[in-house]
Amino acid sequence: MQERLSLIDLKVKIGKIIFKNSVLVASGTFGYGEEYSELFDLNRLGGIITKSVTLNPREGNPPPRTCETPSGMLNSIGLANIGIEKFIQEKLPFLRKFNTRIIVNVAGSTVDEYLQVVEKLNRAKGVDMLEINISCPNVVEGGMVFGSDPECAFRCVKSIRKATDYPLVTKLTPNVRDIGEIALAVEDAGSDCVSLINTLVGMAIDSKTKKPLLANITGGLSGPAIKPVALAMVWKVAQKVKIPVVGIGGITNTEDALEFLLAGASLIQVGTSNFIDPQTAIKIIEGLKNYCKGNKISKIKSLIGKLKIGD
Amino acid sequence: MVFQKKVKLISSEKLTSDLFRLRFFCPEVAKGAKPGNFAHIRISQNTTPLLRRAFSIFDVDLKKKTFDILFKVVGLGTKILSEKKKGESLDVLGPLGNSFLISSKEQNLVLVAGGMGIAPLMFLASYLVKSEKIKREKISFLYGEKTKNNFVCLGQLKKLGVKTVLTTEDGTKGFKGKVTDLFLKRRIKLGIGKNCFIYSCGPQKMMKKMSELSKKYDLFCQLSLETHMPCGLGACFGCVVKYIKNDTTPLAGQATYKRICVDGPIFDAREVELD
Lengths: 311, 275
Ligand SMILES: Cc1cc2nc3c(=O)[nH]c(=O)nc-3n(C[C@H](O)[C@H](O)[C@H](O)COP(=O)(O)OP(=O)(O)OC[C@H]3O[C@@H](n4cnc5c(N)ncnc54)[C@H](O)[C@@H]3O)c2cc1C
Ligand SMILES: Cc1cc2nc3c(=O)[nH]c(=O)nc-3n(C[C@H](O)[C@H](O)[C@H](O)COP(=O)(O)O)c2cc1C
Ligand code: FES
What we know:
heterodimer, A: alpha/beta, TIM Barrel, eight-stranded parallel barrel, 10 helices, 16 strands, 33% helix, 20% strand, globular, B: alpha/beta, Elongation Factor Tu (Ef-tu), domain 3, Rossmann fold, 2 domains, seven-stranded mixed β-sheet, 20% helix, binds flavin-adenine dinucleotide, binds flavin mononucleotide, binds FE2/S2 (inorganic) cluster
């Protein structure tokens, strides 16, 4: 049985990088990997995307930073992170030990800041890919600003493209008029793939106290509530660009993952669901294997973008 | 070591109109839990409520390999939890968080509980008495509730043989007023001073007050803090409290944010800034 299963090919190749399976864990929901390492074998993951890292350490926004909403949650963490120097010294050596793809998510408030972070990562060991976060809704400067305008997005990614040999995945925000336009711009700028979606701007109010539930007033919505929006955007972007698409948004089980693959995602990321059940990603990997077996599919790749429209 | 496990509910007991005690069979948590630790419990298999809920470990039984939680119904999650039946299995992450610092010297220990704050402090009190390192006469337990009928664990406290002082906001039992008022009034009598260890847990407003008093009188007081916790593992940075280090290192006096789930939930009252 084990042998039969291992004949199923879950591998996905993006550029020169081979992922052992399509299931990654999303930035900001898996810390620096170590937080989950007692709970399961990280080697089983297709890849780990680390918490957004910036040039200098960031304290983040005042609390309360999170609240629950119907089938979802809001967060306004504000890119709290330890800064690139400490990340390379203290977090990367641990992650390097695992046989999984390590993708470092990079954020900045100016193009120059992104470049300085990338420059430091160029000299670091154990990084497979960079995810460029041009989509954080919770910071005043930068973040989403770069992701909301095709020209800004192009300039930002183009500069990073010139500054590094790492394969790039650009993470897109759904808080725009036309996400396809931004995807095309970063494709033109040389991004190797795009990941989407980051969180949707949202808000929650306590009618008794007449106060917002987040100190930052607004935050980013994630979880099952955003899945239909994410699916539509992944489908739309996959039609537009030639580069691979990484699907994110409300994925909690194997069916969700399959839906994203059918809509055109080559890889998927599990986010909020890591909080609910830390084993989600592992369960999806097993689920995809069983699905392939049950449906006599030898390569998972063959499912990507196979949405049937019409009769 | 943190475990994620499906654990069986051994019993569910209704203590007052809205207070419940659940007992789970879980050798890992029973063995690993220290006073102050908490368990992160998945309430529902569907998406409402979506996130886990955190509860302090209230009691453990090493022989029977069980642990207990004590909770109050305040919303949907705790409502659903209160309706769970004996024999059902729940997904538990634990034991999580840091634990109370246990004094190794002979000194006065004062435990200050407000309402649900009784949960971690009851575990601490039993632990202290069982450890026999500290004479029970040295332990005082101040316990405040809104009204007489809300008190729980009084029999247990009596059995432990620690000095217990009660207070109610409506004056229906014990001293009249808040437990922080009682703490202030009895400060001298209870020998509360620099060489005393104070442990406290209760609503946010009470924690703020205890923090202010600890700063004012320079008391060593450990608070057990609560907030919404998406992950409970230190991964999301969603559960922070403002923190100012109180020592002589170069970082002293600088405000940062600490994660309540892994850097806490137990903090030195002089080092946190609560609203
Ligand atoms: C480390 C830790 C230990 C805890 N120990 C206990 C315990 O031993 N016994 C117990 O009864 N409760 C404890 N709590 C609080 C408990 O987690 C909340 O009461 C519970 O999550 C409420 O869930 P709900 O779905 O019923 O309420 P919701 O519908 O989510 O909320 C109802 C109300 O309670 C407030 N609230 C919700 N969660 C929290 C929270 N985590 N902290 C503070 N306020 C909250 C909300 O803002 C709202 O006003 C603990 C919390 C933490 C973080
Ligand atoms: C608490 C929290 C923190 C996040 N932090 C980041 C971050 O630092 N960088 C980033 O690119 N995305 C961040 N995200 C967005 C997620 O990576 C993901 O894009 C989003 O949550 C949607 O997926 P989900 O519905 O599966 O959670 C964060 C999300 C959450 C819930
Ligand atoms: S709850 Fe996620 S870091 Fe504390």
